[in-house]
Amino acid sequence: MDGVHDLGGKHGFGAVNPEPNEPVFHERWEARVFAMYLQLGGNLDRSRHAIERIDPISYLADTYYGRWLGGLETRLVEDGVLSQSEITERAQALGARLDDRVAARPSFTRDHLPDEKPSTDRIGTAERPLETSPRFALGDRVRAKTTSAEGHTRMPAYVRGCVGQVIGLHGGWVFPDSHAHGHGEGAEYLYTVRFATETLWGGGGEENVELSIDLFEPYLDMVDHDD
Amino acid sequence: MTDSRMAVRVEALESLLIEKGLVDADRIDETITFYNERVGPMNGAQVVARAWRDADFKVRLLADGTAAIDEFGFSGGQVDKLVVVENTPDTHNVVVCTLCSCYPWAVLGLPPRWYKDPAYRSRVVREPRAVLKEFGTAIPGDTTVQVWDSSAEIRYMVLPAMPSTWAGQSLDVLAAKVSRDSMIGVEVLSD
Asked: Which site in B42, B117, B164, B182 is 20 to 30 Å from A4, CA atoms measured?
């Protein structure tokens, strides 16, 4: 989905702000969210998509573990484990104000389809050996598709339509675009593709920069050698 | 939301999940302690120091990072497959995850805030030299800056270059000098 999470290349976010001697967790609540998330486990791709569906203002305002919290609330409500009113009432009993946003309400739900195939929780590696042959080989020139999917995808918008070269073969992996939506693991071949920076951002940018990114086979088309 | 309001929201969720038997408060405490104390860049620093001292290990590490770090027995998750990329006079590597904040937890611990914030995620793929300068890191114009956007389950770690004056030092001494930022690629190690 074309969400606010797809940040690569966006302008306007200002300077990077490193913090000397930063603690692992800044606040107790951050650590609690992190540990609850790990304990609940589940489908990592669905979890990522739940975070992407947080409304864009909150996505930016809530910071990293706040986004994890929002994603967790969404997953638990959509799975029927907890109800929104149950979370809201508990939060108010603990002192939340009536206008506080609790039990994150995703702003983009059209795409949350009921599971068609049982979606295995991903425990352990997401690598899935495939019996078919990969479509691309090292050195092939490939073009990233221009598709703007409404669901979960791991192809950032900034590579759309751009031509790069396959520099890494990684075998088959769980395909997040399928697995995030309960359509099964749908394993696909994964490649590292390298792009020249002027291909991505046009001329006039920084000199002597390249970008390498991991892209699944369905994101890519072969470029003819005389293209 | 402010931290105090966020804390209420978390407490609400945690208390409900405990009542339903879905999470265990003691295990939450154990997980937090584990990530505070046992998982962190000191693990990656051991890998780097070993690669500097042991040429055969370095070959194995660059060929198959996952197998090479198995020898250390780290745990901490988020590394289905580790690819280690080496900084050389020709190439400086820097790692990002533009779509979320993927990071090799088992070797570097949990990511710092700046790695997860929009400024780094949006800019380092487009103007890495400018971003590196904000960390005080100037890369010569004839060195290629190679940005790795970890968009799938492969995790990347940078093998920084060792300053020549550190040659001959022990593994422990070297490991203590390897910074987290040098293994993300936003810092070049120096004396």
From this structure: B182
